[in-house]
């Protein structure tokens, strides 16, 4: 969602507040994150044929049937093509009047299944931010500003607001326009953890692996770790008798480590 999506792991871990004896400690240079942010997807931005096919597959991904919410869409809402309307606003070269007409149609539908897609649109169509926020407030009964961050926070605390059934694939195609490599993580048949939602996945502002993870770092005995200071905070992991410490200072730069501890694959995002 920055969010770096990596392989799921199963491991036992415990937090160690401070460095203690008999821990193996990471030795690593601190790679600076990529601060050259790519532009958001442009209207009609071209992608390769392979990526387009992958995106189309993602768009047709199978999802669980939509559960009923307390707000039942009207017959008018049922006739709307959620993907087509959002795609037109997000990608098509249309006038402000045409965009306004589409947003009015969405607002009049009272269909809350548009909400997540509109929040995504709010981030990339800044020229329509005021109008998009107005529709979001109408659909949700809120009074929030045209601020993408506030709407993301709001959506995260309202899982009862369901999206249209093809939303995961629509979002996969959106992300593929930013970086085709995102289709490695969001694609047809992808499994989302039960306590997670596709609506909560956001672009972190860099391309895939734009901030390099700390992969299989070299470990040394703590007595040789003269780069540490007293009371250095670390992440501690102990599996099958293999106990290691990863300084939080290093994870500030890498945001994730991937390692093998006690014969088990371990990933930690920070």
Brief rundown of the structure:
Helix content is 33%, strand content 12%. It is α/β, with parallel strands linked by helices and 270 residues long. The longest helix is centred in the middle third of the chain and has 14 residues, at 96-109.
Overall description:
The chain is an alpha/beta fold and 270 residues long. It is built from nine helices and seven strands, in the order βααααααααββββαββ. 33% of the residues lie in helices and 12% in strands. The chain has a four-stranded mixed β-sheet with strand order 3-1-5-4. A three-stranded mixed β-sheet has the order 2-6-7. The two termini are 13 Å apart.
Task: Give the SSE map.
Elements: E1 24-27, H1 49-59, H2 75-78, H3 82-91, H4 96-109, H5 115-124, H6 129-140, H7 148-156, H8 167-178, E2 214-215, E3 218-220, E4 234-239, E5 242-247, H9 248-254, E6 256-261, E7 264-269
Parallel strand pairs: 1-5, 2-6
Antiparallel strand pairs: 1-3, 4-5, 6-7
What's the number of helices? 9
Mean pLDDT: 77
Overall shape: it is elongated
> How much of the sequence is in beta strands?
5-15%
> Termini distance?
13 Å
Query: What order do the SSEs take from the amino end to the carboxyl end, as H and E?
Result: EHHHHHHHHEEEEHEE
Structural class label = alpha/beta
Strand order of the largest sheet: 3-1-5-4
Helix content: 25-40%
Strand tally is 7
Count of the separate structural domains: 2
Radius of gyration: 22 Å
The main sheet comes to:
4 strands, mixed
Low-confidence stretches: 1-40, 42-47, 51-73
